[in-house]
């Protein structure tokens, strides 16, 4: 079975909460991530996916690379991180421009339809099992927060 790759961005605020986006027509919340276009650098993919799924335009030089991680049997994640101030992110003004055909109606709808900050304790309640496991066992929000602080972010 071939393994696919998604490149994503872990966006933490000053309280080490992660920005999650609700995947439309599902029960789970996720970080901005997606597949790289042919020839696209993984950092650029993470920035593009974040822009498409949240509307946030971020500076590539404020990202730190977290590494590549097993996610599911058929997928790996190449993750980056940066810090956003809660006061600078109006959750109700974030917008997803990446569309897909609704499973119910066939109409084009946004991939993401809501946003929230989630603490490490909240992640299992909202995120998919794969993402919750990654943040609980392999790459904790506290460790990402520490790495961002070391980088001056």
Class by SSE composition: alpha+beta
Give, in spatial order, the strands making up the sheet with the most strands. Answer: 4-1-6-5
SSE pattern, N- to C-terminal: EEEEHEEEEEHHH
Helix content percent band = 10-25%
Main pleated sheet: 4 strands, mixed
* Shape estimate: globular
Tally of strands? 9
What's the rounded overall pLDDT mean?
96
Rg: 15 Å
N-to-C CA distance = 39 Å
Q: What's the number of helices?
A: 4
Low-confidence stretches: none
- β-strand percent reads 25-35%
Organism: Ralstonia mannitolilytica
Pfam families: NUDIX
GO biological process, one term: ATP biosynthetic process
Protein name: RNA pyrophosphohydrolase
Word description of this protein:
- Keywords: Hydrolase.
- GO terms for molecular function: bis(5'-nucleosyl)-tetraphosphatase (asymmetrical) activity.
- With 153 residues, the chain is α+β, with helices and mostly antiparallel strands.
- It has four helices and nine strands.
- A four-stranded mixed β-sheet has the order 4-1-6-5.
- A hairpin with a 2-residue loop joins strand 5 and strand 6.
Short description:
The protein is of the alpha+beta class.
Topology:
Blueprint (H helix, E strand, L loop, with lengths): L3 E9 L5 E6 L5 E2 L2 E2 L7 H13 L9 E9 L2 E9 L15 E3 L6 E3 L1 E7 L4 H4 L2 H10 L2 H10 L3
Parallel strand pairs: 1-6
Antiparallel strand pairs: 1-4, 2-3, 2-9, 5-6, 7-8
